[in-house]
């Protein structure tokens, strides 16, 4: 009962943000989200009886924020960005993640995209980037400007430049850590997206992803690509539990070995592969510090839009309404 006033304020604020952002795309609507997320824990903590015992009321169901990595609809995105965003919103996705071609946008174009997202009720909390976005000077300044316009929280390195050996990876981590320091004053964080290669072991017996985790700041996000982890034979649940608070974003890509079913590899839809999704989601939320999920699909037996739609339907069937 204590939450209604706060929610009402947040809803009213979102209405204001939606109208204002059409005129001023630099107005970041995440302010209302951050204000609300700060206030709610304090309110919940205060809901105790006069004797100091917690109230016996059951907790409401957790609200999942589910999004789409737009690489999943890359052909459609390149053909018609406005239509792609509209379709994704119609399917029921709440969040999108733009991938590296966005870095070529001008600030004016980014503002136009932001206005379209606001009109559709979509948010962009993270972007996928090449190493250029983390390079000092004009490049990182451009990336910061675009991500602030879009309302992003995290710049994620989609893949590493050619790197060899333990010392090579440690050197890359130093550059990444330096970029983190430059992003923080602008309200932005950074992260790394694994592929199958990062689960390989180096000459010291450590996996590449373990070297990255050990040599980057604790606030640096380890964006888990689940399917590549599965294909490499690693345990995604164990990885999440080994890195508390650092798995704030997950790419929900499934995987299946040959002969598993209708498809194999990454072409299976979400929920059709071998991933123990319920156990993994539980670990990500209770230990990993998860903020939002992103479905990602390499391709399937369906077209891009139909694939994105069916993956979300499978998600809702497994976890309830998004």
Describe the protein in words.
By secondary structure, the protein is α/β, with parallel strands linked by helices. It folds into 2 domains: 3-46, no CATH class; 66-319, TIM Barrel (Alpha-Beta Barrel). The chain has 12 helices and 8 strands. The protein has an 8-stranded parallel beta barrel, surrounded by 4 helices. Helix 11 (277-288) links the parallel strand 7 and strand 8. Helix 4 (81-91) runs parallel beside helix 12 (304-319) and helix 5 (107-120) packs parallel to helix 6 (138-150). The longest helix is centred in the first third of the chain and has 21 residues, at 3-23. It starts with a helix and ends with a helix.
Short précis:
The chain is 46% helix and 11% strand.
Q: Which labels suit this protein?
A:
322 residues; TIM Barrel; eight-stranded parallel beta barrel; 8 strands
């Amino acid at each position: 009962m204590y939450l209604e006033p706060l929610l009402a304020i947040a809803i009213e604020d979102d209405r204001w943000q939606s109208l204002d952002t059409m005129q001023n795309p630099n107005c970041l609507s995440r302010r209302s989200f951050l204000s609300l997320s700060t206030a709610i824990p304090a309110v919940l903590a205060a809901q105790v009886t006069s004797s100091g015992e917690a109230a016996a009321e059951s907790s409401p169901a957790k609200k999942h924020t589910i999004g789409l990595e737009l690489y999943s609809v890359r052909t459609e995105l390149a053909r018609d960005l406005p239509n792609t965003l509209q379709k994704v919103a119609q399917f029921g996705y709440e969040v999108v993640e733009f991938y590296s071609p966005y870095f070529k946008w001008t600030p004016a174009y980014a503002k136009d995209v932001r206005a379209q997202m606001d009109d559709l009720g979509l948010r962009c909390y993270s972007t996928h980037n090449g190493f250029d976005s983390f390079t000092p000077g004009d490049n990182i300044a451009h990336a910061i400007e675009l991500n602030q316009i879009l309302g992003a929280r995290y710049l994620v390195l989609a893949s590493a430049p050619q790197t060899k050996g333990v010392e090579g990876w440690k050197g890359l981590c130093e550059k990444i850590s330096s970029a983190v320091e430059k992003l923080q004053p602008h309200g932005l964080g950074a992260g790394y997206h694994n592929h199958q290669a990062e689960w390989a072991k180096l000459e010291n017996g450590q996996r590449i992803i373990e070297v990255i985790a050990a040599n980057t700041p604790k606030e640096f996000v380890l964006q888990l690509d689940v399917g590549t982890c599965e294909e490499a034979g690693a345990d995604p649940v164990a990885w999440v539990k080994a890195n508390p608070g650092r798995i704030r974003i997950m790419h929900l890509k499934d995987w299946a070995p040959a002969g598993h079913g209708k498809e194999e590899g990454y072409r299976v839809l979400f929920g059709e592969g071998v991933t123990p999704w319920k156990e993994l989601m539980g670990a990500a939320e209770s230990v990993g510090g998860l903020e939002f999920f992103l479905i990602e699909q390499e391709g399937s037996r369906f077209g891009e839009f139909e694939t994105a739609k069916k993956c979300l339907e499978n998600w809702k069937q497994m976890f309830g309404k998004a």
